[in-house]
Amino acid sequence: MTVWIDTHCHLDAPEFDPDRDAVRQDARARGVAHCVIPAVERSNWSTARELAHRHGDSYALGIHPLYTGRAEDGDLDRLADELVQHRADPRLVAVGEIGLDYFVSGLDPARQERFYRAQLQLARRFDLPVILHVRRSADKLLKGLRELPVQGGIAHAFNGSLQQAQAFVAMGFKLGFGGAATYDRALQLRRLAAQLPEDVLVMETDAPDIQPHWIYTTAAQRAEGQPQGRNAPGELPRIGEVVAQLRGCTAQSLAQATTRNSKAALPGLAGLVP
Predict the structure, then answer these.
(1) How far apart are CA 189 and CA 148, in angstroms?
(2) How confident is the model at residue 178, as a pLDDT?
(3) What average pLDDT does the chain have?
């Protein structure tokens, strides 16, 4: 069986409350050997950690830009305390999910940037890679990385330009590809997925979000009562097949390459994934 690593899966999300363990078991049966569970705010740090230990996966600790509005300033100190307390935990592999989001309205850009930079400093202090949220913010994120360089990590759900992709790669980052690449209309993203060097790609689902095209329901369908489809880590092999087709390679060779790349991006995975 082809074996995959899902480098970004919010298994702790409430959408999985009814059947979380079954979802993870199904993904494993489909070949998803490992999931990285990035926390998004203080309230779910312990949940992400517990799930990683329960399922033999890994986790990251951070404050997501979408949650900076309700985060307390003291949460940064609490994050530092968590990183101190669990620094010997082999399943803690990154600081994340952190970053900037200039797509969602109502967020304070200055506050986002302050939390982003503070968490880059924590990654430097604890010598951890970072998992970056990149949404209409690539240039600003790169500016922060130039000023506060870290050991690398993953630019999650990357959807920027070729030049931005090359800039992240030059700073030691791998680029996360998932369900968005399954849409025919995502021309620029699919070109990147096809043309970028093999050693810079990692695979992810961002479950329960970023549904592949076979799960997504339109606004019209939802208005008629059809619920939005729920993405899950078990969709990763099929997403991988789409990306492999774009690249003109086999799913197995892509899985092998992206597994190597995942371990390079998040070195802690080397001791967790055979």
Answers:
(1) 28
(2) 98
(3) 97
As a whole number of angstroms, the distance between CA 45 and CA 234 comes to 23
Please give the pLDDT value at position 224.
84
Domain positions in the chain are 4-17+28-271
Backbone angles phi, psi at 243, to 5 degrees: -65, -40
Average pLDDT over residues 26-39: 98
Beta strand 4-6 with 173-177 is unpaired
Instruction: Check: CB of residue 93 under 8 Å from CB of residue 60.
Output: yes
Contacts of 36 (CB under 8 A, 6+ apart): 5, 6, 7, 8, 9, 57, 58, 59, 60, 93, 94, 131, 262, 266, 269
The whole-angstrom separation of Cα 139 and Cα 160 is: 9
Residues contacting 170, CB < 8 A, separation 6+: none
Distance in angstroms (rounded) separating the CA atoms of residues 178 and 154: 13
Amino acid at 85: Q
Give CA–CA dist 67/205, Å, rounded: 20
Q: Are 111 and 69 in contact (CB under 8 A)?
A: yes
- The pTM score is 0.97
CA dist list (Å): 14 to 11, 34, 128, 206, 208: 8, 20, 28, 14, 9
Domain spanning 4-17+28-271: which superfamily?
A: Metal-dependent hydrolases (3.20.20.140)
